[in-house]
UniProtKB/TrEMBL annotation:
Top-level EC class as recorded in UniProt: transferase
Glycosyltransferase 2-like domain location: 5-128
Transmembrane regions: none
Keywords: Glycosyltransferase, Plasmid, Transferase
Name used for this protein in its record: Glycosyl transferase, group 2 family protein
InterPro entries: Glyco_trans_2-like, Nucleotide-diphossugar_trans, TPR-like_helical_dom_sf
EC number: 2.4.1.-
Protein's organism: Priestia megaterium (strain ATCC 12872 / QMB1551) (Bacillus megaterium)
UniProt xrefs under Pfam families: Glycos_transf_2
GO MF annotation: an example: glycosyltransferase activity
Length: 366
């Protein structure tokens, strides 16, 4: 069985660090807490779980803090978490099984990162991250903001998930770091350009965001998932400034990088619904249900765009086209994901007035 060092960087996390450590402390062999300047009870709470607590002067660079944390690790593998992450009970069991059976030839293990779920427990936003890495490989973090762990070698994709349960977040922190880099004339990597554009978009500086998304894409050096997301975010920005022509062009631009993604398909379909072109909308919503993303994809995924959303909207489209049996079929498929959703229940009642009662809810294949 391999041994595991947990490494975390924290600051003023008294509301969440206990919850995080409680979910993992029995599964790791060492806990290293790197505090970057807390003035609350963070270190006191952490001391209930470990005496390996270190101070690190914050220098506005996340990778430096994370690399320092990794340097403190002494076990076979390093697991990294943020204070507002947790392992749910089923994932604790999966991690234990992974620890018992992990072969030493594995250099890195990716885990699913659950960012959001709906009220029915459906995952609505997730991605994969290299979460457990071999210590002796000396993997390093790169980037002052939105840092990433550069890994190589034998990478294993596991079914273990880390669940993000955010309590609070400094919404201006990252933007301030990027603005400071810009003022001092530091060179922005393609990744910096992309994430700076994201921060600008989140702060509703849409025209500046467009400028930096375009700069990012023009480098032609971006990670494919960031390229696709940049196209999607450009579409958001153009929609905000009422430029639908460029919005559509931005969505279509994503097709130059890979096959159509479900969210892009749904957004194109919505555009055609607004034009009352239901046949075209059916094509794009149907494509969303058939276009998946492979399990080893590290980009952010929103499963709702390949499940609930296209099926509930296909119900609307087929109703408009007068094909009530197909409308019923897709409404029932939508209901498998959100069985008590008011839209599904409303459609179900409405369709009972349109087709024989014995067929409503059957969801016959079409």
């Amino acid at each position: 069985m391999v041994s595991i060092s947990l490494c975390m960087i924290v600051k003023n996390e008294e509301d969440s660090i206990g919850r995080c450590l409680e979910s993992i402390y029995q599964l790791v062999d060492e806990i290293n807490i790197i505090d970057t300047g807390s003035n609350d009870q963070t270190k006191k709470i952490a001391s209930k779980y470990t005496n390996r607590i270190y101070d690190f002067e914050w220098v506005h660079d996340f990778s430096k803090a994370r690399n320092y944390a990794f340097e403190k690790a002494t076990k076979d593998y390093i697991l990294w978490l943020d204070a507002d992450d947790v392992f749910l009970e089923e994932d604790q069991q999966k991690l234990l099984a992974l620890k018992l059976n992990l072969e030493s030839s594995v250099d890195s293990v990716t885990m699913k990162y659950i960012l959001a779920t709906d009220e029915y427990g459906n995952v609505t936003s997730s991605l994969r991250r290299n979460r457990l890495v071999k210590r002796r490989n000396g993997f390093r973090w790169i980037g002052a903001v939105h840092e990433y762990l550069e890994v190589w070698g034998n990478i294993m994709n596991s079914e273990v998930a880390v669940t993000h349960k955010s309590i609070h977040h400094d919404s201006d922190r990252n933007l301030k770091i990027y603005e400071k880099k810009l003022l001092t004339g530091e060179d922005f990597s393609p990744r910096d350009l992309y994430y700076f554009a994201n921060e600008l978009k989140d702060h509703r500086q849409f025209k500046r965001a467009i400028e930096f998304y375009e700069k990012f894409l023009s480098t032609e050096k971006g990670w494919i998932e960031d390229n696709i997301a940049a196209c999607r975010n450009l579409a958001d920005c153009y929609l905000e400034i009422f430029d639908k022509e460029r919005m559509i062009k931005s969505l279509l631009r994503s097709f130059t990088y890979t096959a159509p993604r479900p969210e892009i398909c749904c957004r194109l379909a919505h555009y055609f619904i607004e034009k009352n072109d239901y046949q075209s909308a059916v094509f794009w919503y149907g494509s969303a249900t058939k276009t998946g993303v492979t399990s080893d994809n590290l980009g952010i995924q929103n499963q709702a765009y390949s499940t609930w959303i296209p099926h509930i909207q296909l119900c609307v489209c087929y109703d408009a086209l007068g094909d009530y049996e197909k409308a019923n079929h897709h409404n029932e498929l939508a209901g498998t994901y959100r069985p008590n959703d008011p839209k599904y229940l409303h459609n179900k009642g409405y369709l009972e007035t349109k087709i024989p009662i014995e067929k409503v809810g059957v969801g016959n294949e079409t």
